[in-house]
DNA sequence: CGCTACTTTGAATTATCTCAAGTTGAGTGG
DNA sequence: CCACTCAACTTGAGATAATTCAAAGTAGCG
């Protein structure tokens, strides 16, 4: 079932369409909003589950405002966060009706929904639409791959750093700011943990380390990064530094100053 | 640079096109092969690197025969295997020229290559082409997500079991065989390890366990699974069974028989 | 003011990694 | 047909990063 079907349905107006352009020229939501009165926009409260894994989806959706979470649930309440969806991201699947993962709103937000068959005809008539979708898919896929590298190869501190860097980069895009960046990141430590294959306690300890080293402060949905380059350095130091230090200590040498010390 | 540019270039003939249909009705390679003389087919030896991360790709490629490996390299020789590519899989990126990961042949095989701009015009003229690409992308994305669940949430034994199940399912597709399945899987333990975020030794120990329990035998590129349902059971038993057993032992109770014991 | 949900800290436990030796087996060339 | 080689696989024992369990702290909110 699609729980959002009970949400108020708002037809997209011309003004709305113009407003959606804030997502940039590649914005899928704005494109869709302007092409049929059957493209609708729903508002959803934080915490709403848009759909669950295995749901039969009648719509293809694009997030137009707010943050959402894509995840898969396992046994014993464990879950894997697959991606943080930001405005412009596709929620749903073009190739099949069955949902391969769940999606839930992290903040209040808005979702543009297109009936599947309407999307099909829009796509047939407008090649550029499918291209926009492909680009979104590939971007999401690249993020998933980076994610896999983190979970598979990096130590806890690096994973957390890498995720913070990703969040900053997704929010500051073309901006080349590198110092004292501060963004809203409406997520809890547990979301970071579930995304990185760690437990909440481990994420907490990693964040404390980053804070102690003045590399990043993440509290109550607000992320501050004094020096993005340095943080990226920790993210890309998989284990090498820690490893070297460890060995040196074992040999009785004085430990080198690490980024987090 | 694209190292495969030095490979012999073979124009696709009508017969080739017909032959490529073994990939099934959704086969991208066969579709592409029939639509322009500028679509070429290359042969590549096992071990060939088709492209590296950050290469500037002039072609969009589809694997038509053999197995390939998508991966990202890190420090100290560590790498994360992102996906095993089988015939029909897209190698390359529609939305941008820059490669986001490396690809290397696991076996001898063939690759159908389309110049990027030609792909663009083919896609504009044939909406169904882009749809085929989207479906491939979504399938790869779903695999990546399953992969993340494994790496992030499962114990070593479950991860290995899950990967073996995935390989079997991809090779037997619509077949509903469930007993005594045997397939070629031209990979080594180290590929499994790099795919699952484990070390070779750990994969070896997991495989030994599976073999001892008569759940799967994987040796020299050949995988035999006596009972797919049972193996799937181990894959989906994240830790619960082992965990319960562990606790029971600590309490002094007799350990329950586990699948791998 | 007292929930409730989230975060923090500590100590013990453990799955996996590391390091270091073997062992196996397919391929090679005498 | 028999060494020989080399890469892949196997096995063991010790080290460690992360988990688990348990118990306090905090902060937002009605």
Explain what you see.
The structure is a homodimer of 261-residue chains. The first copy, chain A, has helices at residues 14-20, 28-33, 116-125, 127-153, 156-172, 189-196, 200-212, 228-236, 240-250, and strands at residues 9-11, 40-44, 49-51, 59-65, 68-73, 79-85, 90-91, 102-105, 109-115, 179-184, 217-219, 222-227. Helix content of chain A is 41%, strand content 23%. Chain A is globular. The longest helix of chain A has 27 residues, at 127-153. In chain A, a hairpin with a 2-residue loop joins β11 (217-219) and β12 (222-227). In chain A, strands 1-2-9-4-7 form a five-stranded antiparallel beta sheet. Chain A has a four-stranded antiparallel beta sheet with strand order 3-8-5-6. Chain A has a three-stranded antiparallel beta sheet with strand order 10-12-11. With 261 residues, chain A is of the alpha+beta class. Chain A starts with 8 loop residues before the first strand and ends in an 11-residue tail after the last helix. In chain A, α3 (116-125) packs across α4 (127-153), α5 packs across α7 and α5 (156-172) packs across α8. At the A-B interface, β6 and α4 of A face β6 and α4 of B. Chain A binds a DNA duplex (30 and 30 nucleotides) through α7 and α9.
């Amino acid at each position: 079932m699609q729980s959002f079907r009970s949400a108020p349905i708002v037809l997209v107006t011309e003004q709305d369409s113009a407003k959606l352009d804030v997502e940039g020229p590649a914005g899928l939501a704005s494109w869709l909003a302007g092409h049929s009165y059957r493209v609708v926009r729903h508002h959803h409260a934080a915490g709403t589950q848009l759909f669950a894994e295995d749901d039969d989806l009648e719509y293809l959706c694009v997030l137009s405002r707010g943050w959402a979470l894509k995840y898969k649930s396992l046994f014993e309440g464990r879950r894997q966060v697959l991606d943080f969806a930001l405005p412009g991201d596709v929620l749903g699947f073009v190739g099949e009706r069955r949902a391969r993962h769940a999606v839930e709103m992290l903040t209040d937000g808005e979702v543009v929904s297109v009936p599947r068959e309407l999307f099909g005809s829009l796509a047939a008539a407008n090649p550029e639409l499918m291209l926009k979708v492909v680009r979104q898919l590939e971007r999401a896929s690249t993020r998933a791959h980076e994610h896999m590298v983190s979970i598979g190869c990096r130590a806890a501190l690096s994973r957390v750093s890498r995720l913070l860097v990703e969040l900053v980069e997704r929010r500051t895009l073309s901006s080349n700011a590198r110092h004292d960046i501060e963004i809203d990141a409406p997520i809890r430590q547990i979301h970071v943990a579930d995304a990185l294959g760690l437990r909440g306690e481990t994420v907490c300890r990693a964040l404390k380390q980053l804070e102690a080293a003045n590399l990043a402060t993440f509290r109550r949905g607000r992320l501050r990064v004094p020096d993005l380059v340095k943080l990226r350095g920790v993210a890309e130091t998989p284990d090498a530094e820690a490893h070297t230090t460890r060995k040196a200590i074992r040999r009785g040498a004085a430990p080198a100053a690490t980024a987090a010390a």
